[in-house]
């Protein structure tokens, strides 16, 4: 998989001591704040191709989640429910007034949990390629996830995930530890149905048409938000009452969606 995880947008990188972790973040552009959360084994650099478009209209704050990118790991599992506390604490630290929160994959789970646990801190939520149950994922992918551990380092050395980590991580030798913790995280059962059903902020569910789970899973998530249950009506009177929306983006996979102009366009249209 060849992916260019670089950007021409120069951001301001800083650390915030929040919630027991030294969290790295970068600020790009200006406008209403948007917190952007990367996927597993990645970092804020994943969004390089779309960052200029997002930063034209928003103050985009990319965060390196626990153990990823420039944020060193701490003695805590990789758990989206715990990492949501990091994001809520960062919102307070930066004194942001209800930023929009956008997350992809692992970051989508963190974004969802942030909005679910701290609704007063979030204006709008965009959850991209984020599954709410592991059984939604295709069986062959679940089997691959089961093989993610420290022993997989050799197979990862030609990937952008490994190369980026070696370039920016405070302790590059921690990559095997990250693999083990990500593998442990993916092996656990979870069901975020009730968190989705209880969301109090307008939410956009986004997925590729050839994502890690079938489109029907994201339609199921949309239904939990009162979507896809009736005709929308001439004046939109039949649309979900919370202002929620669904976007299945054509021609995209789990591994291309985060850098796609379609993802940026759908996100901007929903936020604005």
Topology record:
Blueprint: E1 12-18, E2 21-28, E3 32-37, H1 51-55, E4 58-64, H2 80-93, E5 100-104, H3 106-117, E6 125-128, H4 139-145, H5 153-156, H6 160-168, H7 175-187, H8 193-197, E7 203-210, H9 215-224, E8 245-253, H10 261-271
Parallel strand pairs: 3-4, 3-5, 5-6, 6-7, 7-8
Antiparallel strand pairs: 1-2, 2-4
Helix pairs in contact: 2-3
Question: How would you describe what is shown here?
Answer:
This protein is α/β, with parallel strands linked by helices and 272 residues long. It has a single domain (12-134, 191-271), classed as Rossmann fold (3-Layer(aba) Sandwich). It is 33% helix and 20% strand. The chain is built from ten helices and eight strands. It has an eight-stranded mixed β-sheet with strand order 1-2-4-3-5-6-7-8, sandwiched between helices. Strand 1 and strand 2 form a beta hairpin. The mean pLDDT is 95.
